[in-house]
Amino acid sequence: MNLPNKLTLLRILFVPLMIAAILIDFPLHYLTAGIIFGMAAVTDSLDGRIARKYKLVTDFGKFADPLADKILVVSAFVCFMQTGLLGRYGAIPVIIVLFREFAISGIRLVAASKGKVVAANIWGKLKTVSQMVGIALIFGMQSLLEILRLCGISFGILGDAFYFIGLGLVWLSTLFTVISGVIYIRDNISFIKDK
User: Fold this and answer.
1) What's the pTM value of the predicted model, to 2 decimals?
2) DSSP class of residue 191?
């Protein structure tokens, strides 16, 4: 197994640590989870660059890299939903993201059964970047609130503002999710049509 594929697997291994850090309430748990998420996001950036630069692109990498992204992002969204960071309607963007990811994975599996590997397109990459940036900013905002709480500083309206900013970031990434999903299905519909 080459280095980019090892980095992809490392990203998947970061996920349970991130989940634990989000869900277990201890001082600065969002900061801890954010650092773990950041390390996972760095592996996402590195594995692709290394694979392209040193011509280490593999079929496994084309499949596992976007899968690792999906596992990381969906895990963060589900945990945000569980902790109430996405509010009353937080399930809606999570369901949309899950629907898109299952649909695209299904197309990839059908393509693979026909001997084709379908790599991510620019819209899928924009979707992933918007999700990762949104998640990172949510971790950043929650970390700041944790630090203020530990210092005994009241944050009042700042907490409400961060909630709405976080929710806006999630919905923005969900919009990119829908756009990329529609384009992906349109461009790869031939794999699911019977010929």
Assistant:
1) 0.91
2) G
